[in-house]
Every structure is written in C-alpha cells, then in structure tokens.
Amino acid sequence: MNGMRELGWAALLAASLMAAPAARADNLPGSRPPDPYRSRTEGIDIQCPGATDPKAVCVSIACGDGFVKMADGSDQYIFGFQDVAGIDPTVMWSYGRLGAEFPAPTIWAKEGQHLYLTLTNLGMIMRPDLFDPHTIHFHGFPNAASIFDGEPMASFGVTQNNSVTYFYDLQEPGTFMYHCHQEASEHMQMGMLGQLYILAAQDDLPDGTLLGTFTHHTGYKYVYDDGDGSTKYDVEVPLQMSSFDPHFHAADLGIQPPPFATMVDVYPMLNGRGYPDTVNPGGIMNNRNAYRSDIPNKVAQKIPALITCTQGQKVLLRISSLSTTEFNTLTAPGFPMLVVGTGAHLLRGPDKPDGTPGKNLYYLTQTITLGGGESTDVIVDTTNVPRGTYFLYTSNLNELSNDNEDYGGMMTEFVVN
Amino acid sequence: MNRERKRMWTKEAATLAVLLLGIAVGSHATILGLTGTSPNPTFNFIAKQGYISTPDGNSIYCWGYANGATGAFQLPGPTLIVNEGDTVTITLQNQISIPGPPAVPGPAVSMIFPGQQNVSASGGTAGVLTQEAPSDGTTTVTYTFVAAHPGTYTYFSGTRMELEVEMGLYGALIVRPAGFDPNVAANRRAYDDPASQYDHEYLYLLSDLDPTLHPLVEQNKLDQYDNTTFFANNWLVTGRCFPDTMADPNVGYLPSQPYNTAPLTHPGEKVLLRFIGAGHDLHPLHHHGNNALMIAKDGRLLESAPGVSGPDLAVSDFTETVAPGETIDAIWVWYGYHLGWDEYGHTLGGPGPFQPNEIYAQSTLASSIGVADTTISVPAGTGHAFLPPPRTFRAIIWGAGYANPDLDPNREVVTATRSLTNPDTFTITRAQEGTAAQAWSVGSIIADTDHGLPLPVTMPSIQNLEFGQYASGSPFLGQSGALPPLQGGFNPYNGYYYMFHSHNEKEIVNNNVFPGGMLTMMGVLPYGAPIP
Ligand SMILES: [Cu+2]
C-alpha cells in the first residue's frame, strides 16, 4: 500500500525534464496554465504539484483489461485498474498491457490531504475493437463537484491513450470506494472496482490530548473524528464484497454484446477472491499468457481477505459492497461486531445547533447487510474472544460457492492469536 | 423523443434566460398528485388496464389505479396528497378485463394502506386482508381512514399481491403535517418537526418488473404465471425508466406514465427525497454529490422521544437501502463547501458575484489584532462551526464594512487551526496567497471559504475526453465550455448534475440497453436558474 503512495519522485522529475510540457490552447476556461511539475508523453499527463502543495498526495492509476483467476481455477477476462505510480510515461503502454487487477489498487490517504488522482486509459488489448472511455468515481465523496465525480453523463470519460488528474480536497474520513462509472453496469461487472478509505485527522492529535474523558496517545488510530475515542482500533482490514457473472465476462472476451438482461453472479467474492483464496496471504498469479503468448503471467489479485489479530485487539473491518447484482449479508457467529459508521460517516445523530455532538447510534450485531454502493465500519473487540480461527461468511448460503464448486465463495477466516 | 426536444435549447438562449430572470426566482419543486378537498378529501379510483412503454422499445401490459371514470389507466396510481387529520375516502371499482384469447374478467382487486390505522372498508366482497372489488365495473368498495400522522406512505392492492402489485396496482400517499404551507419556508415540512423543513421535494417510487410475466397475464395464461421465477429486467422510478424519468410530466408519448423524476435544486437548498419500495427487491439507491440524512422511515420521524427530541436518530449515508414496502424520507443538500477550489471560478477581488454558498463558516474577531499576531479569538460559542483541530483551514479576514471579501482591497488570506482546548481561539498563519498582513479591529469578519482558489489541476484537451449529455464543458458552476460536436446539450443552465440511481448496477439498464432503468439525474443549478 505504501508503494502506491510513493510516486517515485526521481522518475517523475526526470521524465518532466525530458518531456517539456506541450503548449495547449484548448484548456477548459479558467484552468491554470501548465506548470513545470509534470510529465507528458502522448496523452499521459500526470499532475502532481510537489512542493507547491504540501498537502498533496499523488496516485497514478491506469486502466485497461486483464485476467484474474477464480478460486475454482477458471480464468476471467476483466476490465480493471492497476497501480502505475512511478512508471515512466514513455514505458507505461508496454508496462501496463493486459495488467488490470482485481480488486483495483487500494487508495488511502488522510483527512486534510489533497488527493491528485491520475487515471490513464491504456485501452483494451483483447478488445482492440473497443474504444471505451473510463473514469474514476470516488463513491461517497462529500460535496463532490461533477467535474471530478467520474460519472460521465454529467462530466466526461477519459478516452483511450489519454489521462486526466482528478482532484479531491479530503474533508471527511471514512470508508468510501471507487469504481469506473463509464457504462457502469458493464464496466463494474467486468471488475473496475476498488477500495478507498480516508484516515481520521484525530489520529494526529498531540500525545496526551483529552477527548472528553479519553486520553489520546501517539499511535492511537480512530475510524472517525469521534471526539471521545469511541472508534479507536488497533488493526484495520478492508473487505469489499463483489461478484462475477462468468457468462458476462466470456461475452466481453468473445466480442459479444454485453448480456445485461441475463446477468446472474455465481462467483461471490471478498477482495476479489472466493474461499479458500480469500485466506491465501499472498497474491494470485493469473493466466494471461495463455491468451497473449507475448505477455507473461502476472499477480493480478493482490489483496488477501484473511483477518489476523492478537487477542485483545480491536479489529476494524471496513466493509463495502460493489456487487452489481445483489444484497449480501455477512455474519461472524460469536463475534461482537460493533457498527460505528455507515456511508463513510460516524454513526451518530445530527449535531445540535449549538455544536453539541449528536447521539451515538453504535450497535452490536451479528450480521451486516450491504447492497452495491454501501459501506459500513465495524469494530470487533477480541478481548473476550477465545484464540482460534473463525469464519466470516455470507449467510446468503447459495453464495458460498465458486460457481459449481461448493464450500467457497464469499467467506474468509478470522484468526485470533 | 425528449432528446430531440431538449436539444433545441441553445446555451446562448439559456444564459440569456438566467440573466433576464435574475436571482429572485424563489420556486420550490413539489410532487404532483391529487389533493382532494381538506378536511374530507374523496378520491374515486377505477382499476384499469393498459400498456406502459419502456425505452428499450417494449410495450408492457399492466394494471393500474385510474382517477375516476375519465382518468386513463396509469402507472403508478395517482399520488394522493392529503393533510394530517383529514378523513380520507377512496372508492374503488374494477374494470380489468384480461384480453386473452379468450377474454376473461380480471381478478378482484382492493387497496390497503400500510401505516394507516383503523381503515374501514365497505362494499364489494370480503377478501383476506380487506374488502375487494370484483371486475364487474360497477361494484364499489369504499375505504376510509383518518390520516393521523404526516409522512410518506404507499398504497397497493391487498389481493393476490404477488400478481397485482407486479402488474402495477400501487401508488404513493403523502400526508402533509398540520400547518403545512408550501409558500412559507418554515412551514414547508415533511413532519411536524422543524428539522424536516425543505425547499424542494421529489418522489422516488421504486419498482421492478419482469417483462416476461406480463404477456402471460395479458394472454390469459395465468396458469403459467410463476412468481418463484421472477427475474426483473425493467426498473422504474415512479412509473418510468431512464431516460423517460427525465422527460416532462404528462408528456404525450407516455400517456400512461404521467410522473417524471427530474430533480433540480440550488446550492444549499434542502431537497426532501421521498423513497418508496414498491417492487419485489431491495434497491440500494445511491445519490451522488453528497450524503443524505435519513430523517424518517415508514412515516415516522427517527426520534428517541416522539414529538420532543426531533430526529436525533437520523443517519447520514450515501446510499439508502429501500426495501419492498418500506418508505424513507431523506434530506439531501449540496453545499459545494471545501472543494479546495472556487466552484465559480472566481479570482480574489472579483469579478463575482460572490455567491451565498461560498462560506463554510463565518464569525468576527472578538479582539483586535496587529500585523504580527498569530492568535485570534471569535465570540464565545461561534468557533465550533469551523473545522475542528488538528485540521487547518483557509480563511479570509476582511473589514466589517464590506459585504464580502472581494470588496475590501485589504483582505487577508490566512490558514487557521482551532485551539484544542478553546474552540473560539484560532492559531493563524498570516499573509497567504500574496496578501499582506493587516491590523484588524474588533468585528472584522473571518470566514472559512474557498473563494478565489484556482482549480488545482489542468483539464485535458477536450479531444482527450468524451462528454456526457449533462456536461457543461466547464468545471465551474454556471459556466459553459466548448464541447465536441453532439456532446452535452442537456444542461442549459450549466449546473452540476448528479446521478441518483440503483447501485445494484444491473438495475440501470432497460433489458439489454444501457443506460436506463432506475436512474435519474439531479441538477444543482446556479442561483437564479428557475426550478419548475
Ligand atoms: Cu470503465
């Protein structure tokens, strides 16, 4: 995760020295003239302001197609994103070919930072007939401006061989998500889904700061700026529900029109994997070389869903769903799951007009139900949980399969050491 | 069809219209429906049959509640809008006749009113849940109830619901609180509580239908109608599928689907979203642009002490789960705060005009400061409106005699952080963005605002992008930019548009055609742009 936030300044600066910014008379009105902190090769234009904006966090992501492997061993053709931080624009086309990952690289930053998020559209290797634009929709971003919302009907999609830098002033912490919004029913089913969360500024309070009767200490982490330490956690695990319809993916690979009307998902997943791949702590190698002999295989599923902690720790589960078809319920029998947030917002009633904080609406539960585009923050306090291995799984029991293979699907393990 | 008509708008004409109308437009969108005559509104419904049209070119046989003998078949049934305390009477007759062949009389139908107590029903024949009207066209069933609680409700057939609700026998019921007055801001409320006040209201009556089931009913093959294999392929908002949701109400080419859902608002105005689940499935209704505050569910304010606490159990979310039979009231506001750039494209000092939503928090200096001071205080109890520590925020200080910072040539930009212990004390870094430190007297204004901040990134050439119908071509609210041919065109006032849609994304298609289904576009228009 740290890797993708390190943009490779040396590489970027070198590139910017080599490629002088092209003069462009066709900027949108009111936008700033080109500045020197950028590189540009063909349509790639990675904008990262460096020292001129000390709050800047720069993320560079490319999109295109690729392959992933399901837990039953089948290959699925996908559309997706990949991390291209630090990749020189002159080699990005060859570097990124058929390199889409599922889920997309996780994006995280801190409340108060400025996120410069560059999306470069590398096009489709297996579908050279397709010229689909792509976007990034920062799902749940408060007070979004439509220009950076990534919903193309109200703004634009980025066409092939071009890039755009979206800008977000990160005002609120919480568990968001991101996905492509271009022809969303197709591109999201095809895998253009990722996790995105913003850490709370409360983490950075000086040591000893009093939050009501709670004393903050350096290193403490909170889900939200709760003002009372009630969302403190020790370990965080983002879990994203999603699911694939292999017939839909096969149609896209086979140059057929997307079969929306028959969409039924049979690969339910957490972090892009069905059980038992969910508990594989490593990456999963794909089989793209079988489809393009000039491109070697790649680890295209990099995010395990295994949860491990030490007894007594508080585990934050950042749970989101980007299923394109279903509501799903996750359950962990025997675990006290405390819901402290929904919709990237502290689960607390409205503040009073005088600034008095609203009522805490946290609740303990055994089940979390989310439809597509929903998220929730759950804290599991393992103080009284005996050491051992537990299951976190969907209680939609028909989703505990990897297509025809049973005992799989949307399930993972929760290990208390 | 609507596309062709709307394309006749030109940007030039629209801009001129904004200028002519000025900023004084104070319209408030309201939900269309039948209101009757308070305190004893009476509605005469007749269950009829007909066809709805879906944008994938299909024409689907449906049943619906029609408004009296002259009212055409419609989907959904008329939205009933009554007042708290009204004695509501609805008569129901049934003219459904299944075409076949062979033509046969339709089944008996009825109406039930979840959330209403002591509903009396008379006439017709006794059914499982209520009195039913046989399809003889003459028998009248009468339902009467007192609308005791304000809120958002639904009504639907209480007879063979697995068939009749699928076929379209459902509608919305809105009960206005006592003292409701659409023309008085304080009395334009969803509930009695002032926290339910709003500026605009829109109805999202969500339903799903399986287009393979309806022909079986039409052809009198009810023995083949298998509810257990229900598989929706059309998804509707208040009776229409996108893009028809965005067409005008009562358009001629949708004779059976009178209601649109084409929401509009201005920055900072409160939009009441009345969600109703009227289909088989749950729908995750996602609103772009901002979270909404869910203040009520099933016609009751979310409050710990009814009538006393206000909606203290209200929850903020970016997606509302709307379950079948459920209603949700949520208030959505787009403020445009803290984008990190000025959404109007202003530069400090003008030209403006400075807009009402540009200030996130504002107060005054409680004591004077010199050019070297780095601490300020604001009047007690006003500091909490600013961002809490350790966040820093950009602020502008200007003289009390000026209406906005553009007018004061000595304005100073600072960055500020609230004290950890006293919210009314800020530490500031002086003279930012090329402004000079000034001595400021008591009463000078300090505001957290993005006013005058430039867009931090450069937008690519328009040749590198593909713009949608609701794009203006400009990053800035109220401004337009050059667009490639045949792109844009649906946004005459250069607003910001936000998709409000089912986030189970397979539900935003019309059968095999994307986009469609359960999808609408909310427009945040610049101040002064009219809202019908
Ligand atoms: Cu895409």
Structural notes for this entry:
The complex is a heterodimer of chains A (417) and B (532). Chain A has one domain: Immunoglobulin-like (Sandwich), CATH 2.60.40.420. In chain A, strands 16, 17, 21, 23, 24, 25 and 27 form a 7-stranded mixed beta sheet that branches. Chain A is mostly beta strands. Chain A has helices spanning 2-5, 9-18, 92-95, 184-189, 246-253, and strands at residues 38-41, 44-47, 56-69, 75-83, 104-110, 114-121, 137-139, 156-158, 163-169, 174-179, 193-199, 210-211, 214-215, 221-222, 232-233, 235-244, 267-270, 284-285, 299-301, 307-309, 314-321, 328-331, 337-342, 345-346, 363-365, 367-370, 374-381, 388-394, 401-402, 405-406, 411-416. In chain A, 8% of the residues lie in helices and 37% in strands. The radius of gyration of chain A is 22 Å and the shape is globular. Residues 1-40 of chain A have low confidence and may be disordered. Chain A starts with a helix and ends with a strand. With 532 residues, chain B is mainly beta. Chain B folds into 2 domains: 6-332, Sandwich (Immunoglobulin-like); 356-448, no CATH class. In chain B, strands 13, 14, 16, 18, 19, 20 and 22 form a 7-stranded mixed beta sheet that branches. In chain B, strands 23-28-25-26-27-24 form a 6-stranded antiparallel beta sheet, with no helix packed on it. In chain B, strands 2-1-4-10-7 form a 5-stranded mixed beta sheet. In chain B, a hairpin with a 6-residue loop joins strand 26 (412-418) and strand 27. Residues 1-25 of chain B have low confidence and may be disordered. Classes of the chains: A mainly beta (417), B mainly beta (532). The structure holds copper (II) ion (CU). The site of copper (II) ion has 6 residues of chain A, from loops.
List the helices and strands and how they pair.
The complex is a heterodimer of chains A (417) and B (532).
Chain A: H1 2-5, H2 9-18, E1 38-41, E2 44-47, E3 56-69, E4 75-83, H3 92-95, E5 104-110, E6 114-121, E7 137-139, E8 156-158, E9 163-169, E10 174-179, H4 184-189, E11 193-199, E12 210-211, E13 214-215, E14 221-222, E15 232-233, E16 235-244, H5 246-253, E17 267-270, E18 284-285, E19 299-301, E20 307-309, E21 314-321, E22 328-331, E23 337-342, E24 345-346, E25 363-365, E26 367-370, E27 374-381, E28 388-394, E29 401-402, E30 405-406, E31 411-416
Parallel strand pairs in A: 3-6, 5-11, 16-21, 20-31
Antiparallel strand pairs in A: 1-2, 3-4, 6-9, 7-10, 10-11, 12-13, 14-15, 16-17, 18-19, 21-27, 22-26, 22-28, 23-24, 23-25, 23-27, 28-31, 29-30
Chain B: H1 2-7, H2 11-21, E1 42-53, E2 59-67, E3 80-83, E4 87-94, E5 97-98, E6 104-105, E7 120-122, E8 125-126, E9 131-132, E10 141-146, E11 151-156, H3 161-164, E12 170-176, E13 200-209, H4 213-218, E14 234-237, E15 264-265, E16 271-277, E17 283-287, E18 292-297, E19 300-301, E20 315-317, E21 319-322, E22 327-332, E23 359-364, E24 375-377, E25 392-398, E26 412-418, E27 425-432, E28 445-449, E29 465-467, E30 496-502, E31 519-524
Parallel strand pairs in B: 1-4, 3-12, 13-16, 15-31
Antiparallel strand pairs in B: 1-2, 4-10, 5-6, 7-10, 8-9, 11-12, 13-14, 16-22, 17-21, 17-30, 18-19, 18-20, 18-22, 23-28, 24-27, 25-26, 25-28, 26-27, 30-31
The structure holds copper (II) ion.
Residues 79, 134, 180, 182, 187, 192 of chain A line the site of copper (II) ion (CU).
